[in-house]
Amino acid sequence: MLRTRFAMNISTLKWLRILLIAVIAAFIAAGIYAAYQRSKNVPIIFAPKDVLETVWINYKKSYVDPASGRTVDPSRGGVTTSEGESYTMLRAVWLDDHQTFDASWKWTQANLEFKNGHLFSWLYGRRPDGTYGILTAQNGQNSASDADTDIAVALLFAFARWRDPSYLAAAKSTIADIWSNEVIIVQGKPYLAADNVEKNFTGGIVVNPSYLAPYAYRMFATVDPGHDWNGLVDTSYSVLKQSIDLPLDKKKSVDLPPDWVEVSRTDGSVHPPARSGPQGSLDTNYGFDALRVPWRLYLDWQWYHDARAYTLLSGMKYLQSFWEHAGLLNETYAHDGSVVPPSGESPAMYGGTIGTMMIMSPSDAKAMYDHKLIALYTPDYDAWVQPLSYYDDNWAWFGIALYNGLLPNLWATVTG
Q1: Check: CATH 1.50.10.10 for 34-415?
Q2: CA-to-CA distance for 342 and 319, rounded, in angstroms?
């Protein structure tokens, strides 16, 4: 009996060895075939949805702590921003990743949500005494209205997808506090400030145009009809148009949205920023912040067909001209179109900007997608060719998803 059992174990091991060799050979063959295709300039066919799902798995490994659900930005010393949590929640709900969504939301509620309200502190990390918490020395206790808005949208989407009423209740509470604390009334019209402290100042209202999300306010109006969210849609378009058209602090504008502006408390007019923010001086560049404007405008055009979104997107011709001339976009442009050094490229710029290309020139959009976005990914090992930073990873993902029509308005399944 022992001899028979021993013989069977040897036989099993032989078959396992053969199976392992076959699997390894298959992987090697797949890699050789992919390399051959590239050498012949034959495109490798893979589904965009698969790309979004596989890089999401890698994103979670790199930036989401599996024990707590906290989204961490290693490039900034391991801090967490409310923006980062909002991006994790949005990506998770779009991909139907219920577990990651809940982990992120639970951590955000416990660590970022105001103790006396339902907005979220914008910056969390390691403090000088070695403990972790809100970084008050950097005004981390203040809110950021883009993150609050995106978290509320993610919660509405979560209710639409998973039908848990706690998501809807939480969204309603945050939406009400956005109106109470981040919306300022000027001549009877609502304007979205950059944070919850602008109401305490007497000068211009600091506004980040990339925080303005008309599609979100249309959703908010359906659950909070007592406030003029549709009026906020209108003033957002007014601020965006003025900030794009006006020269601001330059001699001319090339129709690029700026990172920051101030809105007059007297008449709602737009001006260059005069005050500093928590991270230093506020500029009018088309850069790290403003690249999100085309993406947000495209969503409002795609979901709600507002002609103002189409008009603004189709007017950003400088970007198309620069792309056609140089075959690339730089990381940052001044409001007059001059390149701000260092003059490198960033995946985030392409992920945000592709929205305007999709309106102005489908052929340019395809070229940008093929050469600057999907080219970041390799099917050889289902990941980015090179690891991307937290911000680049998010905005490359958002750009790929936008281009392929994979960002559905989940709230429409509730409202019809």
Answers
A1: yes
A2: 18
pLDDT of res. 343: 83
DSSP state at residue 378: E
**271: β partners:** 262
Show the low-confidence residues of the chain (pLDDT under 70).
Answer: 1-45, 276-280
Instruction: Name the one residue in this structure whose structure tokens are 């145009």.
Output: 209
Q: How far is residue 235's CA from residue 212's CA, in Å, rounded to a whole number?
A: 10
Q: What is the DSSP letter of 289?
A: T
How many residues does the structure list for the chain?
416
Angle at 208 between CA 203 and CA 213, to 5 degrees: 125
Domain ranges of the chain: 34-415
Best CA proximity match to 333, nearest among 194, 324, 180, 323: 323
Using CA atoms, how far residue 223 sits from 102, 113, 216, 234, 241, in Å, is 22, 21, 11, 19, 28
Q: What 8-state DSSP symbol labels residue 400?
A: H
Structure tokens at 11: 């036989």
Q: Residue 79 in 3-state DSSP?
A: strand
pLDDT of the residue at 64: 98
69-78 burial: b if 16+ Cβ within 10 Å, else e: bbbbbeeeee
pLDDT of res. 275: 73
pLDDT (0 to 100) of residue 25: 43
Q: What distance in Å separates the CA atoms of residue 364 and residue 359, rounded to the nearest whole number? A: 10
Mention every residue, 6+ apart, whose C-beta is less than 8 A from residue 156: 167, 168, 171, 219, 223, 410, 411, 414
Residue of 344, 389, 346, 372 lying closest to 84 (CA atoms): 389
339: which strand partners? 333
